[in-house]
Amino acid sequence: MHNALQGNHVRISEKLLRAYEQVNRENAERLRAGLEDADFVFIHDPQPAHLLQNCPKRRGKWIWRCHIDASHPYRPVWKYLQQFVSGYDASIFSLAGFAKSLPHPQYIIPPSIDPLSEKNMDLPGDEIDAVFGEFQLDPQRPLLLQVSRFDRFKDPLGVIQAFRIVKKFVPDQQLVLAGGGATDDPEGEIVLREVREAAAEDPDIHILLLPPDAHRKINALQRAADIILQKSIKEGFGLTVTEAMWKGKPVIGGDTGGIRLQVTNFNTGFRVSTPEGAALRIRYLLRHPQKMIEIGGKAREFVRDNFLLTRHLREYLTLILSLHYGAKDRIELG
Amino acid sequence: MTETTVQPSPGMAHGDFVIKDCALIAIATGSRAMTLKELRDGLRTIDEASIFYHFWGGLLQPRFEEREYNNDFAAWAWYHLHDATLAERMAVIDPIGFASLEALRGELLDIIEERLDEEEYLPWLQATSPFEFIRSQIVVFDTHKRATTSEELVRLFPDISASSIFYHFIDARRRLSHHGNDFSFWLAGFDGRYQELCNRLNGIDPYFGSLTDLKSELNGLFQEYFREVMI
Fold it and tell me: Fewer CB within 10 Å, N or C, chain A?
Protein backbone atom coordinates (compact mmCIF):
# COMPACT_ATOMS: atom_id res chain seq x y z
CA MET A 1 0.00 0.00 0.00
CA HIS A 2 2.87 2.33 0.89
CA ASN A 3 4.49 1.79 -2.52
CA ALA A 4 1.17 2.11 -4.37
CA LEU A 5 0.48 5.44 -2.67
CA GLN A 6 3.90 6.63 -3.83
CA GLY A 7 2.93 5.80 -7.41
CA ASN A 8 3.92 2.19 -8.02
CA HIS A 9 1.29 0.22 -9.92
CA VAL A 10 0.80 -2.40 -7.25
CA ARG A 11 -2.48 -4.27 -7.37
CA ILE A 12 -3.62 -5.26 -3.91
CA SER A 13 -5.84 -8.34 -3.84
CA GLU A 14 -9.22 -8.38 -2.09
CA LYS A 15 -7.81 -10.94 0.31
CA LEU A 16 -5.03 -8.57 1.40
CA LEU A 17 -7.44 -5.67 1.75
CA ARG A 18 -9.67 -7.78 4.00
CA ALA A 19 -6.58 -8.73 6.04
CA TYR A 20 -5.72 -5.01 6.37
CA GLU A 21 -9.20 -4.28 7.68
CA GLN A 22 -9.13 -7.27 10.01
CA VAL A 23 -5.81 -6.22 11.59
CA ASN A 24 -7.22 -2.73 12.12
CA ARG A 25 -10.35 -4.18 13.70
CA GLU A 26 -8.22 -6.24 16.08
CA ASN A 27 -6.09 -3.21 16.98
CA ALA A 28 -9.23 -1.16 17.54
CA GLU A 29 -10.49 -3.76 20.01
CA ARG A 30 -7.37 -3.21 22.09
CA LEU A 31 -7.22 0.58 21.74
CA ARG A 32 -10.88 1.59 21.48
CA ALA A 33 -11.41 2.91 25.01
CA GLY A 34 -8.51 5.34 24.78
CA LEU A 35 -9.17 6.35 21.20
CA GLU A 36 -12.88 7.03 21.61
CA ASP A 37 -12.29 9.06 24.74
CA ALA A 38 -9.42 11.21 23.45
CA ASP A 39 -9.89 14.86 22.53
CA PHE A 40 -7.47 14.65 19.63
CA VAL A 41 -6.19 11.55 17.88
CA PHE A 42 -3.31 11.60 15.41
CA ILE A 43 -3.16 8.57 13.13
CA HIS A 44 0.05 8.18 11.15
CA ASP A 45 0.19 6.88 7.58
CA PRO A 46 -2.08 4.39 5.78
CA GLN A 47 -1.45 1.33 7.93
CA PRO A 48 -3.75 2.31 10.83
CA ALA A 49 -5.99 4.72 8.82
CA HIS A 50 -8.87 2.24 9.00
CA LEU A 51 -9.00 2.54 12.83
CA LEU A 52 -11.41 5.45 12.48
CA GLN A 53 -14.12 3.18 11.06
CA ASN A 54 -13.85 1.01 14.12
CA CYS A 55 -14.36 3.78 16.65
CA PRO A 56 -17.93 4.93 15.97
CA LYS A 57 -18.37 6.49 19.42
CA ARG A 58 -15.31 8.73 19.12
CA ARG A 59 -15.87 12.12 20.70
CA GLY A 60 -12.70 13.98 19.73
CA LYS A 61 -11.15 15.23 16.52
CA TRP A 62 -9.23 12.74 14.41
CA ILE A 63 -6.31 13.82 12.26
CA TRP A 64 -4.65 11.69 9.61
CA ARG A 65 -0.91 12.39 9.31
CA CYS A 66 0.47 11.32 5.92
CA HIS A 67 4.27 11.04 5.89
CA ILE A 68 4.69 9.90 2.32
CA ASP A 69 4.53 11.56 -1.07
CA ALA A 70 1.06 10.50 -2.17
CA SER A 71 0.80 13.24 -4.80
CA HIS A 72 0.63 10.75 -7.69
CA PRO A 73 -0.74 7.55 -6.20
CA TYR A 74 -1.84 4.42 -7.98
CA ARG A 75 -5.51 5.35 -8.29
CA PRO A 76 -7.25 2.10 -7.26
CA VAL A 77 -5.31 1.96 -3.99
CA TRP A 78 -5.84 5.65 -3.22
CA LYS A 79 -9.55 5.28 -4.03
CA TYR A 80 -9.75 2.45 -1.53
CA LEU A 81 -7.92 4.38 1.20
CA GLN A 82 -9.69 7.66 0.49
CA GLN A 83 -13.02 6.27 1.73
CA PHE A 84 -11.47 5.90 5.20
CA VAL A 85 -9.31 9.02 5.20
CA SER A 86 -12.21 11.25 4.13
CA GLY A 87 -13.91 10.57 7.46
CA TYR A 88 -11.14 12.30 9.42
CA ASP A 89 -11.54 15.88 10.67
CA ALA A 90 -8.26 17.00 9.12
CA SER A 91 -5.11 15.67 7.53
CA ILE A 92 -1.48 16.73 7.65
CA PHE A 93 0.98 16.58 4.76
CA SER A 94 4.66 17.47 4.78
CA LEU A 95 4.43 19.62 1.63
CA ALA A 96 1.59 21.45 -0.10
CA GLY A 97 2.30 19.44 -3.23
CA PHE A 98 1.39 16.23 -1.41
CA ALA A 99 -2.10 17.41 -0.43
CA LYS A 100 -5.06 15.51 -1.85
CA SER A 101 -8.64 16.28 -2.69
CA LEU A 102 -10.27 15.64 0.68
CA PRO A 103 -13.37 17.08 2.34
CA HIS A 104 -11.53 18.55 5.35
CA PRO A 105 -8.69 20.99 6.11
CA GLN A 106 -5.27 19.83 5.00
CA TYR A 107 -2.48 21.29 7.12
CA ILE A 108 1.08 21.60 5.87
CA ILE A 109 3.53 20.62 8.60
CA PRO A 110 7.00 19.27 7.87
CA PRO A 111 8.24 16.66 10.34
CA SER A 112 11.19 17.17 12.66
CA ILE A 113 13.95 15.49 14.62
CA ASP A 114 14.62 15.32 18.33
CA PRO A 115 18.15 16.65 18.89
CA LEU A 116 18.37 14.93 22.28
CA SER A 117 17.34 11.46 21.10
CA GLU A 118 19.90 8.65 20.73
CA LYS A 119 19.81 9.14 16.97
CA ASN A 120 20.84 12.78 17.15
CA MET A 121 22.50 13.54 20.47
CA ASP A 122 26.19 14.51 20.64
CA LEU A 123 28.43 11.48 21.03
CA PRO A 124 31.89 11.11 22.56
CA GLY A 125 34.69 11.05 19.99
CA ASP A 126 35.77 7.51 20.90
CA GLU A 127 32.26 6.17 20.24
CA ILE A 128 32.35 7.73 16.77
CA ASP A 129 35.84 6.40 16.12
CA ALA A 130 34.75 2.93 17.20
CA VAL A 131 32.54 2.44 14.13
CA PHE A 132 35.63 2.40 11.91
CA GLY A 133 36.97 -0.68 13.67
CA GLU A 134 33.60 -2.33 14.09
CA PHE A 135 32.72 -2.15 10.39
CA GLN A 136 36.25 -2.51 8.93
CA LEU A 137 36.34 1.06 7.65
CA ASP A 138 39.50 3.08 7.16
CA PRO A 139 39.43 6.36 9.13
CA GLN A 140 42.06 7.84 6.79
CA ARG A 141 39.91 7.52 3.66
CA PRO A 142 36.81 9.51 2.62
CA LEU A 143 33.61 7.89 3.83
CA LEU A 144 30.29 8.22 2.01
CA LEU A 145 27.13 7.03 3.72
CA GLN A 146 23.50 6.42 2.84
CA VAL A 147 21.19 5.40 5.68
CA SER A 148 17.89 4.04 4.47
CA ARG A 149 15.76 0.98 4.04
CA PHE A 150 16.61 -1.22 1.07
CA ASP A 151 13.82 0.20 -0.99
CA ARG A 152 13.76 1.07 -4.70
CA PHE A 153 12.51 4.58 -3.91
CA LYS A 154 15.78 5.16 -2.00
CA ASP A 155 17.75 4.13 -5.10
CA PRO A 156 20.63 2.21 -3.42
CA LEU A 157 21.67 0.89 -6.82
CA GLY A 158 21.95 4.46 -8.08
CA VAL A 159 24.22 5.23 -5.13
CA ILE A 160 26.49 2.32 -6.03
CA GLN A 161 26.57 3.53 -9.63
CA ALA A 162 27.54 7.03 -8.50
CA PHE A 163 30.25 5.57 -6.25
CA ARG A 164 31.70 3.62 -9.19
CA ILE A 165 31.84 6.75 -11.35
CA VAL A 166 33.62 8.71 -8.62
CA LYS A 167 36.02 5.86 -7.93
CA LYS A 168 37.74 6.47 -11.27
CA PHE A 169 38.76 9.88 -9.95
CA VAL A 170 38.94 9.27 -6.20
CA PRO A 171 39.98 5.63 -5.85
CA ASP A 172 40.38 5.56 -2.08
CA GLN A 173 36.81 6.48 -1.07
CA GLN A 174 34.56 4.01 0.73
CA LEU A 175 30.79 3.67 0.76
CA VAL A 176 28.48 2.45 3.49
CA LEU A 177 24.88 1.56 2.76
CA ALA A 178 23.31 1.15 6.18
CA GLY A 179 19.76 0.10 6.76
CA GLY A 180 17.39 -2.53 7.88
CA GLY A 181 14.32 -4.02 6.33
CA ALA A 182 10.90 -2.67 7.22
CA THR A 183 8.82 -5.53 8.56
CA ASP A 184 5.91 -4.35 6.41
CA ASP A 185 7.95 -4.07 3.20
CA PRO A 186 7.73 -7.30 1.20
CA GLU A 187 10.09 -5.95 -1.48
CA GLY A 188 12.97 -5.24 0.89
CA GLU A 189 14.58 -8.67 0.59
CA ILE A 190 14.60 -8.50 -3.22
CA VAL A 191 16.17 -5.04 -3.25
CA LEU A 192 18.78 -6.09 -0.68
CA ARG A 193 19.72 -9.06 -2.86
CA GLU A 194 20.14 -6.77 -5.88
CA VAL A 195 22.28 -4.39 -3.85
CA ARG A 196 24.49 -7.23 -2.62
CA GLU A 197 24.96 -8.46 -6.18
CA ALA A 198 25.84 -4.95 -7.40
CA ALA A 199 28.37 -4.50 -4.59
CA ALA A 200 29.80 -8.02 -4.65
CA GLU A 201 33.05 -7.25 -6.44
CA ASP A 202 33.97 -4.15 -4.46
CA PRO A 203 35.50 -4.43 -0.97
CA ASP A 204 35.02 -0.68 -0.47
CA ILE A 205 31.25 -0.97 -0.51
CA HIS A 206 29.95 -1.98 2.91
CA ILE A 207 26.37 -3.11 3.33
CA LEU A 208 25.26 -2.95 6.94
CA LEU A 209 22.05 -4.53 8.12
CA LEU A 210 21.30 -2.88 11.41
CA PRO A 211 18.54 -3.68 13.88
CA PRO A 212 15.69 -1.16 14.12
CA ASP A 213 16.92 0.15 17.48
CA ALA A 214 20.52 0.82 16.37
CA HIS A 215 19.96 4.56 16.74
CA ARG A 216 23.25 5.31 18.47
CA LYS A 217 25.18 3.28 15.90
CA ILE A 218 23.56 5.19 13.03
CA ASN A 219 24.27 8.43 14.85
CA ALA A 220 27.97 7.45 15.10
CA LEU A 221 28.12 6.42 11.43
CA GLN A 222 26.57 9.72 10.33
CA ARG A 223 29.10 11.62 12.42
CA ALA A 224 31.97 9.52 11.08
CA ALA A 225 30.99 10.09 7.43
CA ASP A 226 32.34 12.88 5.25
CA ILE A 227 29.34 13.11 2.91
CA ILE A 228 25.82 11.81 3.41
CA LEU A 229 23.77 10.64 0.46
CA GLN A 230 20.01 10.30 0.25
CA LYS A 231 19.58 9.71 -3.44
CA SER A 232 15.85 9.02 -3.25
CA ILE A 233 13.72 9.12 -6.37
CA LYS A 234 10.62 9.54 -4.24
CA GLU A 235 10.65 10.84 -0.70
CA GLY A 236 8.06 12.02 1.78
CA PHE A 237 10.37 14.27 3.73
CA GLY A 238 13.70 12.57 4.25
CA LEU A 239 14.40 12.70 7.96
CA THR A 240 17.78 11.04 7.40
CA VAL A 241 18.65 14.22 5.51
CA THR A 242 17.63 16.31 8.52
CA GLU A 243 19.65 14.05 10.82
CA ALA A 244 22.75 14.38 8.65
CA MET A 245 22.39 18.15 8.39
CA TRP A 246 22.03 18.40 12.17
CA LYS A 247 25.40 16.65 12.42
CA GLY A 248 26.93 19.31 10.19
CA LYS A 249 27.37 17.10 7.14
CA PRO A 250 26.86 18.10 3.52
CA VAL A 251 24.03 16.10 1.95
CA ILE A 252 23.65 14.97 -1.64
CA GLY A 253 19.97 14.23 -2.00
CA GLY A 254 17.52 13.28 -4.71
CA ASP A 255 15.65 16.24 -6.18
CA THR A 256 12.31 15.13 -4.84
CA GLY A 257 9.74 15.65 -2.08
CA GLY A 258 10.85 17.10 1.21
CA ILE A 259 14.53 16.95 0.25
CA ARG A 260 13.77 20.06 -1.83
CA LEU A 261 12.72 21.85 1.33
CA GLN A 262 15.97 21.01 3.09
CA VAL A 263 18.77 20.85 0.56
CA THR A 264 19.73 23.95 -1.38
CA ASN A 265 22.59 23.72 -3.87
CA PHE A 266 25.90 25.08 -2.59
CA ASN A 267 24.27 26.03 0.73
CA THR A 268 23.17 22.94 2.61
CA GLY A 269 24.24 20.33 0.03
CA PHE A 270 23.24 19.39 -3.49
CA ARG A 271 20.11 18.05 -5.12
CA VAL A 272 20.60 15.56 -7.93
CA SER A 273 18.43 13.67 -10.39
CA THR A 274 20.81 10.95 -11.61
CA PRO A 275 23.73 8.80 -10.40
CA GLU A 276 25.90 10.93 -12.70
CA GLY A 277 24.71 14.06 -10.90
CA ALA A 278 25.48 12.49 -7.53
CA ALA A 279 28.95 11.49 -8.76
CA LEU A 280 29.67 15.03 -9.94
CA ARG A 281 28.72 16.53 -6.58
CA ILE A 282 30.68 13.92 -4.60
CA ARG A 283 33.79 14.74 -6.65
CA TYR A 284 33.21 18.46 -6.14
CA LEU A 285 32.89 18.13 -2.38
CA LEU A 286 35.88 15.81 -2.00
CA ARG A 287 37.96 18.34 -3.92
CA HIS A 288 36.74 21.22 -1.72
CA PRO A 289 37.04 20.15 1.92
CA GLN A 290 36.60 23.73 3.12
CA LYS A 291 33.30 23.92 1.25
CA MET A 292 32.18 20.73 3.03
CA ILE A 293 32.75 22.40 6.40
CA GLU A 294 30.98 25.57 5.29
CA ILE A 295 27.96 23.69 3.89
CA GLY A 296 27.79 21.46 6.97
CA GLY A 297 27.73 24.49 9.26
CA LYS A 298 24.91 26.13 7.32
CA ALA A 299 23.00 22.86 7.24
CA ARG A 300 23.10 22.52 11.02
CA GLU A 301 21.85 26.07 11.54
CA PHE A 302 19.07 25.56 9.00
CA VAL A 303 17.87 22.50 10.92
CA ARG A 304 18.13 24.38 14.20
CA ASP A 305 15.87 27.12 12.84
CA ASN A 306 13.33 24.93 11.07
CA PHE A 307 13.29 21.22 11.69
CA LEU A 308 13.63 20.55 15.41
CA LEU A 309 10.73 19.17 17.40
CA THR A 310 10.13 22.48 19.17
CA ARG A 311 8.83 23.96 15.92
CA HIS A 312 6.87 20.79 15.26
CA LEU A 313 5.21 20.87 18.66
CA ARG A 314 4.29 24.50 18.18
CA GLU A 315 2.60 23.67 14.87
CA TYR A 316 0.73 20.69 16.33
CA LEU A 317 -0.58 22.88 19.16
CA THR A 318 -1.59 25.50 16.59
CA LEU A 319 -3.39 22.83 14.58
CA ILE A 320 -5.24 21.63 17.69
CA LEU A 321 -6.37 25.20 18.38
CA SER A 322 -7.29 25.65 14.76
CA LEU A 323 -9.52 22.57 14.82
CA HIS A 324 -10.99 23.56 18.16
CA TYR A 325 -11.91 27.08 17.08
CA GLY A 326 -12.92 26.35 13.50
CA ALA A 327 -11.94 27.69 10.13
CA LYS A 328 -11.59 31.40 10.87
CA ASP A 329 -8.39 33.07 9.70
CA ARG A 330 -7.52 34.52 13.09
CA ILE A 331 -7.77 32.98 16.52
CA GLU A 332 -7.10 35.31 19.45
CA LEU A 333 -6.41 33.62 22.77
CA GLY A 334 -6.46 35.22 26.20
CA MET B 1 -14.05 34.95 0.35
CA THR B 2 -13.58 35.55 4.07
CA GLU B 3 -13.44 38.95 5.67
CA THR B 4 -10.47 39.63 7.89
CA THR B 5 -11.19 41.48 11.08
CA VAL B 6 -8.86 44.46 11.16
CA GLN B 7 -8.25 45.50 14.75
CA PRO B 8 -5.39 47.01 16.70
CA SER B 9 -3.94 44.64 19.23
CA PRO B 10 -6.24 44.78 22.28
CA GLY B 11 -4.83 46.78 25.15
CA MET B 12 -2.69 48.97 22.90
CA ALA B 13 -2.60 52.72 22.39
CA HIS B 14 -3.20 54.30 25.78
CA GLY B 15 -2.60 51.35 28.08
CA ASP B 16 0.39 49.07 28.49
CA PHE B 17 2.15 47.62 25.50
CA VAL B 18 0.81 44.05 25.54
CA ILE B 19 3.46 41.75 24.09
CA LYS B 20 1.77 39.06 22.10
CA ASP B 21 3.11 36.15 20.13
CA CYS B 22 1.65 34.20 17.28
CA ALA B 23 1.89 30.97 15.38
CA LEU B 24 0.97 30.62 11.75
CA ILE B 25 -0.21 27.37 10.32
CA ALA B 26 -0.30 26.67 6.60
CA ILE B 27 -3.35 25.02 5.06
CA ALA B 28 -3.49 23.69 1.52
CA THR B 29 -6.37 25.19 -0.43
CA GLY B 30 -6.33 22.42 -3.03
CA SER B 31 -6.00 25.06 -5.74
CA ARG B 32 -2.89 24.85 -7.91
CA ALA B 33 -1.67 26.32 -11.19
CA MET B 34 0.59 24.77 -13.82
CA THR B 35 0.39 27.69 -16.26
CA LEU B 36 0.24 31.46 -15.97
CA LYS B 37 -3.39 31.39 -17.11
CA GLU B 38 -4.22 28.99 -14.31
CA LEU B 39 -2.38 31.22 -11.84
CA ARG B 40 -4.50 34.17 -13.00
CA ASP B 41 -7.72 32.16 -12.70
CA GLY B 42 -6.74 30.92 -9.26
CA LEU B 43 -5.84 34.42 -8.09
CA ARG B 44 -9.24 35.76 -9.11
CA THR B 45 -11.08 33.60 -6.62
CA ILE B 46 -8.59 32.58 -3.96
CA ASP B 47 -9.22 33.69 -0.39
CA GLU B 48 -7.38 36.90 0.45
CA ALA B 49 -5.75 35.04 3.37
CA SER B 50 -3.87 33.14 0.69
CA ILE B 51 -2.57 36.35 -0.88
CA PHE B 52 -1.39 37.51 2.55
CA TYR B 53 0.33 34.16 3.09
CA HIS B 54 2.16 34.25 -0.24
CA PHE B 55 3.50 37.75 0.45
CA TRP B 56 4.29 37.48 4.16
CA GLY B 57 3.90 33.91 5.36
CA GLY B 58 7.33 32.94 4.07
CA LEU B 59 8.85 34.86 6.96
CA LEU B 60 7.54 32.21 9.35
CA GLN B 61 8.11 29.19 7.13
CA PRO B 62 11.29 27.18 6.51
CA ARG B 63 13.24 28.47 3.57
CA PHE B 64 16.90 28.78 3.01
CA GLU B 65 17.17 31.12 0.09
CA GLU B 66 17.60 34.81 0.56
CA ARG B 67 14.37 36.36 -0.53
CA GLU B 68 15.64 37.22 -4.00
CA TYR B 69 12.05 37.28 -5.22
CA ASN B 70 10.29 38.38 -2.14
CA ASN B 71 6.86 36.94 -2.71
CA ASP B 72 5.88 33.43 -3.71
CA PHE B 73 4.27 34.53 -6.98
CA ALA B 74 7.46 36.16 -8.22
CA ALA B 75 9.58 33.22 -7.04
CA TRP B 76 7.35 30.78 -8.92
CA ALA B 77 7.46 32.93 -12.07
CA TRP B 78 11.25 32.73 -12.02
CA TYR B 79 12.06 29.29 -10.64
CA HIS B 80 9.25 27.31 -12.23
CA LEU B 81 7.97 29.33 -15.19
CA HIS B 82 11.43 30.75 -15.97
CA ASP B 83 9.95 34.10 -16.95
CA ALA B 84 12.35 36.74 -15.65
CA THR B 85 10.23 39.65 -16.89
CA LEU B 86 7.18 38.52 -14.97
CA ALA B 87 9.25 37.62 -11.90
CA GLU B 88 10.82 41.08 -11.80
CA ARG B 89 7.52 42.87 -12.24
CA MET B 90 5.89 40.83 -9.49
CA ALA B 91 8.88 41.11 -7.16
CA VAL B 92 8.79 44.88 -7.26
CA ILE B 93 5.26 44.95 -5.85
CA ASP B 94 5.42 46.45 -2.39
CA PRO B 95 2.48 45.00 -0.43
CA ILE B 96 2.80 47.75 2.17
CA GLY B 97 1.70 50.29 -0.38
CA PHE B 98 -1.74 48.77 -0.96
CA ALA B 99 -4.81 49.81 0.97
CA SER B 100 -6.17 46.27 1.06
CA LEU B 101 -5.42 42.75 0.02
CA GLU B 102 -8.10 43.13 -2.63
CA ALA B 103 -6.13 46.01 -4.13
CA LEU B 104 -3.03 43.85 -4.03
CA ARG B 105 -4.90 41.08 -5.80
CA GLY B 106 -5.92 43.59 -8.48
CA GLU B 107 -2.30 44.63 -9.03
CA LEU B 108 -1.15 41.02 -9.38
CA LEU B 109 -3.90 40.31 -11.88
CA ASP B 110 -3.00 43.43 -13.91
CA ILE B 111 0.63 42.36 -14.14
CA ILE B 112 -0.29 38.83 -15.18
CA GLU B 113 -2.81 40.02 -17.78
CA GLU B 114 -0.24 42.41 -19.22
CA ARG B 115 2.33 39.64 -19.47
CA LEU B 116 -0.15 37.22 -21.05
CA ASP B 117 -0.87 39.84 -23.71
CA GLU B 118 2.82 40.35 -24.42
CA GLU B 119 3.82 36.76 -25.19
CA GLU B 120 1.73 34.32 -27.18
CA TYR B 121 3.42 31.26 -25.74
CA LEU B 122 2.92 32.21 -22.10
CA PRO B 123 -0.71 31.12 -21.68
CA TRP B 124 0.27 27.58 -22.61
CA LEU B 125 3.73 27.32 -21.08
CA GLN B 126 3.83 24.56 -18.45
CA ALA B 127 5.70 25.32 -15.26
CA THR B 128 8.24 22.83 -13.96
CA SER B 129 6.31 22.65 -10.67
CA PRO B 130 2.80 23.83 -9.87
CA PHE B 131 2.04 26.94 -7.86
CA GLU B 132 0.27 25.65 -4.76
CA PHE B 133 -2.15 28.17 -3.28
CA ILE B 134 -1.79 28.00 0.48
CA ARG B 135 -3.71 29.96 3.08
CA SER B 136 -2.85 30.36 6.69
CA GLN B 137 -4.50 30.57 10.04
CA ILE B 138 -2.91 32.69 12.73
CA VAL B 139 -3.20 31.91 16.41
CA VAL B 140 -2.40 34.87 18.64
CA PHE B 141 -1.57 34.41 22.29
CA ASP B 142 -0.60 36.59 25.20
CA THR B 143 2.96 36.32 26.52
CA HIS B 144 1.76 38.05 29.72
CA LYS B 145 4.62 40.49 29.35
CA ARG B 146 3.72 44.17 29.53
CA ALA B 147 5.60 47.40 29.01
CA THR B 148 4.26 50.47 30.75
CA THR B 149 6.90 52.84 29.46
CA SER B 150 8.93 53.04 26.29
CA GLU B 151 12.09 52.36 28.31
CA GLU B 152 10.53 49.17 29.60
CA LEU B 153 9.63 48.10 26.07
CA VAL B 154 13.24 48.61 24.98
CA ARG B 155 14.44 46.57 27.94
CA LEU B 156 12.07 43.71 27.12
CA PHE B 157 12.75 43.84 23.39
CA PRO B 158 15.80 41.52 23.18
CA ASP B 159 13.73 38.68 24.67
CA ILE B 160 10.85 39.04 22.23
CA SER B 161 10.57 36.07 19.84
CA ALA B 162 10.79 36.34 16.06
CA SER B 163 7.15 35.33 15.75
CA SER B 164 6.22 38.10 18.16
CA ILE B 165 7.97 40.53 15.82
CA PHE B 166 5.88 39.06 13.01
CA TYR B 167 2.72 39.80 14.99
CA HIS B 168 3.60 43.35 16.04
CA PHE B 169 5.35 44.51 12.88
CA ILE B 170 3.94 42.46 9.97
CA ASP B 171 0.53 41.24 11.02
CA ALA B 172 -0.21 44.71 12.41
CA ARG B 173 -0.49 45.92 8.84
CA ARG B 174 -3.70 43.96 8.51
CA ARG B 175 -5.09 45.13 11.83
CA LEU B 176 -4.29 48.83 11.83
CA SER B 177 -6.25 51.14 9.59
CA HIS B 178 -3.15 53.11 8.57
CA HIS B 179 -1.12 49.91 7.88
CA GLY B 180 1.47 50.76 10.48
CA ASN B 181 2.95 48.65 13.23
CA ASP B 182 2.01 48.14 16.87
CA PHE B 183 5.15 49.82 18.21
CA SER B 184 4.47 53.11 16.42
CA PHE B 185 0.76 52.86 17.22
CA TRP B 186 1.49 52.56 20.92
CA LEU B 187 4.26 55.17 21.01
CA ALA B 188 1.99 57.62 19.20
CA GLY B 189 -0.23 57.56 22.30
CA PHE B 190 2.42 59.54 24.25
CA ASP B 191 1.29 62.93 22.88
CA GLY B 192 3.88 63.24 20.16
CA ARG B 193 6.83 62.67 22.49
CA TYR B 194 8.11 59.84 20.32
CA GLN B 195 7.18 61.17 16.90
CA GLU B 196 10.76 60.97 15.67
CA LEU B 197 11.04 57.35 16.84
CA CYS B 198 7.71 56.52 15.20
CA ASN B 199 8.94 58.03 11.93
CA ARG B 200 12.07 55.92 12.06
CA LEU B 201 10.08 52.77 12.86
CA ASN B 202 7.69 53.47 10.00
CA GLY B 203 10.67 53.89 7.70
CA ILE B 204 11.86 50.32 8.18
CA ASP B 205 11.24 48.10 5.18
CA PRO B 206 10.45 44.63 6.54
CA TYR B 207 10.11 43.06 3.15
CA PHE B 208 13.66 41.80 2.69
CA GLY B 209 15.51 39.51 5.02
CA SER B 210 14.38 37.32 7.87
CA LEU B 211 12.46 38.07 11.03
CA THR B 212 15.72 37.74 12.94
CA ASP B 213 17.22 40.48 10.75
CA LEU B 214 14.14 42.61 11.31
CA LYS B 215 14.31 42.13 15.07
CA SER B 216 17.95 43.08 15.06
CA GLU B 217 17.21 46.23 13.02
CA LEU B 218 14.38 47.24 15.33
CA ASN B 219 16.48 46.58 18.40
CA GLY B 220 19.31 48.66 16.96
CA LEU B 221 16.92 51.50 16.21
CA PHE B 222 15.43 51.48 19.73
CA GLN B 223 18.87 51.38 21.35
CA GLU B 224 20.20 54.17 19.15
CA TYR B 225 17.18 56.41 19.70
CA PHE B 226 17.25 56.14 23.47
CA ARG B 227 21.01 56.60 23.55
CA GLU B 228 20.58 59.84 21.59
CA VAL B 229 17.76 61.00 23.86
CA MET B 230 19.82 60.28 26.97
CA ILE B 231 22.64 62.45 25.57
Answer: C
